[in-house]
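Try it yourself: sequence plus iron/sulfur cluster, in.
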Amino acid sequence: MANLASNFVGIKSPNPFWLASAPPTDKEYNVRRAYEAGWGGVVWKTLGEDGPPVVNVNGPRYGAIWGADRRLLGLNNIELITDRPLEVNLREIKAVKRDYPDRALVVSLMVPCQEEAWKAILPLVEETGADGIELNFGCPHGMAERGMGSAVGQVPEYIEMVTRWCKANTRMPVIVKLTPNITNILYPAEAAKRGGADAVSLINTINSITGVNLDNFAPEPTIDGKGTHGGYCGPAVKPIALNMVAEIARNSETADLPISGIGGVTTWRDAAEFLSLGAQNVQVCTAAMTYGFKIVQEMIAGLENWMDEKGHTSVASIVGRAVPNVTDWQYLNLNYITKAHIDQDACIKCGRCYAACEDTSHQAIAMSDGRVFEVKEEECVACNLCVDVCPVEGCITMVQLEAGAIDRRTGKTVDPEYTNWTTHPNNPMAKVAAE
Amino acid sequence: MADTAPKPGIAAGRLAPEDYRANFSDLHPPLDSHEAAVEADRCYFCHDAPCMNACPTSIDIPLFIRQISTGNAMGAARTIFNQNILGGMCARVCPTETLCEEVCVRETAEGKPVKIGMLQRYATDTAMAAGRQFFTRAAPSGKKIAVIGAGPAGLACAHRLAVKGHGVDLFEAKSKTGGLSEYGIAAYKTVDGFAQAEVDYVTAIGGITVHHGKALGRDLQLASLVKDYDAVFLSMGLGGVNALGAADAEAEGSDDAVEWIAELRQASDPASVPVGRRVVVIGGGMTAVDAAVQSKALGAEEVTICYRGPQSRMKASAFEQELAQTRGVTLRTGMAPKRIIAESGKVTGIEFDHGGETVTIACDQVFKAIGQTLEARALNGAAATVELAGGKIKVNAEGRTSMAKVWAGGDCATGGDDLTVTAVAEGRDAAESIHRALGAASH
Ligand SMILES: Cc1cc2nc3c(=O)[nH]c(=O)nc-3n(C[C@H](O)[C@H](O)[C@H](O)COP(=O)(O)OP(=O)(O)OC[C@H]3O[C@@H](n4cnc5c(N)ncnc54)[C@H](O)[C@@H]3O)c2cc1C
Ligand SMILES: Cc1cc2nc3c(=O)[nH]c(=O)nc-3n(C[C@H](O)[C@H](O)[C@H](O)COP(=O)(O)O)c2cc1C
Ligand code: SF4
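Structure, out:
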């Protein structure tokens, strides 16, 4: 039986599923119920410095995009950090941690970019018995205008400096939460590492406008006729988050930096993908906000089942398994040749592959009488578009040509040897190297 | 309160008012906008969609469904009406299970086609409820066309001709417009006076003058129409009924199904329509099913459809047969009528030959639904001859008859099944053909 127990920078939890810092973790009532539902840990909703709390807008905070059947694919918010008094949050954190010692409880923090401010809050958090802190350098709206959140997260030097202050002023593990609203995720990750961070967590939300109200021409969500960019999250952001996690995991300078994977985790499968790309645990927000706390039960059962089926005994044994297979484009094997193949028994004859390939790609699918769709191997470049647009999973597959077979598109025999762009005759750089 | 003891013989008012209401309510209640959105999301937007090819009027189904899914039901209605101005009626009466929905790829994939008919109704209802018209007339052409019969074929033809700027005189023998939409289609398929609402919607284009009570062969002669008009379109449906012949009896309770259905459709209250306590319907098509189901809906206790051939040859679709059975109608096949039995001028039963054996079913009323026929007399009254084929007016692919300046379509003409949607397609296509011919003639 697979063991889901997780140890993230010394913080133990019964499973690797944590709730990300957000409304689900904004108060004692929620966090107790989350633990009861099975969540392994939580990152408490971001706390600010002592004093009058921030205020939120009183109109809609969220915008969304949907897929078929109004399935929520992407959520956007213009919420700020907690708007409840600091002492109330601290009192609740202490009470919850006392009652759930086996669960992870990390406190997210965002205070002004001055050492005094951090020095003031860290002992208060430590006193609650919390397991660690997460520095919120990611919030893309509202707080950045005040010189916090992504305003800090977009300047590597600030990340390094604040991380160093925290490490100097607390014994708790420090997790630095990264904003994706930058050009290269390695800069902030490396800065966190230089500052002494115990780990990074990513991604926070992405700058976004989810839509425009076409009656009054205002961005959504709309407050009294105006709107502003908000932070985007949910299933739609998963590919962006996976890539950023992988980049950090395979970068030599940050390869040993523990990662908490966040962004669109909705099922056990998403979680397993984050883990395999180097995250040691995952954090979840939108899936819980969409379906409630119970969703974690599917994640736990699904991950366990998959691990049992595949013989993976511990979470640690999955972490990073896909990292060695993430490479640069130039190293991909150009002698790996596949062709699309349509399973005529599974085909429902919708013709979407035909429309896609004929209109927008390589005219490699033939449509004949009786709505029979077949791949013309002599035209197929193996782009995979037909597979992606086919509504029946598994109906169209990419079949590898054996070494020695003839690629009917190029007329060449398939070479068993690995070859890539770096040595390809059409590559001007390759020629330079050869000369 | 209805009597507890069932009324013997043929009688009206067998049921309580709420039963009538329930029995004659909408067969498929319309989708609300949420249901429509969910259903529209199921469409795959197929390439060269099979549904579109299966529709006799070739409505661009993937396009109109996508328009619904993007919140543009009005645009969806336009897409539908472009091809089929009676899209509202077709959405209600088309046997979609043997047309568009039969070939839906989701039928192949999971045995549940996209509910195309229901979505079509959603879109057309939206536009009609808003009184939204999508067509304007072209400048008057000065041409005049006589259309004979104001059923689906005649209306579709008249509308398309009006769009092209031609003037239409629509001659109708009956006192109401609509043909079988008004007099034939089962009441629960077109509730709340939809047939007349649709007639108003179609004729609102203008340029169509309806003349009620004018019958070809009685009040009008084809020979003079071809002189007085630039073209004539014949769309008088199948006015005659096949006779049972020797097996029939001159007795109270031996009734023609189509006539009885018309009476029911025209009744202001179904409670006023008499029906037998025990009813036998002879036939195997849509008319037989409709007569049987509506007899049951009126409170007949025992209703049996008796079809001569095997079940596989019944014209009523599987859906129709199932509807009959779920509504409590008994279906018997291989039953060839031998003799209607009457006592003192009233039907008491009917005898069948059932594989050599004589089977008698006791009943108070027999409905004959063994097919309608063309009343060809109306055509040849003025010695102008129109060639027939298989008892129908022979037409070519464009709807032209053998007679110059005369086109025909719908049930009265050859080609296609006897369905509302086929009538619409033929009426529309004949109008296009007439328009082309008139254009060529004026050059
Ligand atoms: C009981 C019944 C149920 C049906 N149910 C369905 C169904 O569920 N779905 C479906 O798709 N189809 C159904 N049909 C078939 C459908 O109604 C017809 O195919 C369709 O109405 C044919 O249209 P049409 O315009 O050709 O003829 P009709 O609708 O028959 O219209 C012909 C018109 O011409 C008039 N007319 C006749 N003779 C003359 C004359 N000499 N001069 C002037 N006017 C004349 C008639 O009064 C009538 O108004 C049903 C038919 C019946 C009988
Ligand atoms: C309404 C809302 C409020 C959030 N508030 C915070 C916050 O206070 N601090 C923080 O670090 N992240 C905050 N986030 C970001 C989430 O913690 C998380 O990084 C992001 O939603 C991506 O994960 P997901 O795709 O599972 O939702 C918030 C997200 C949402 C939807
Ligand atoms: S893989 Fe690409 S090129 Fe090949 S058939 Fe599919 S869509 Fe066409």
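One thing you can check immediately is this: Chain B has 17 helices and 19 strands.
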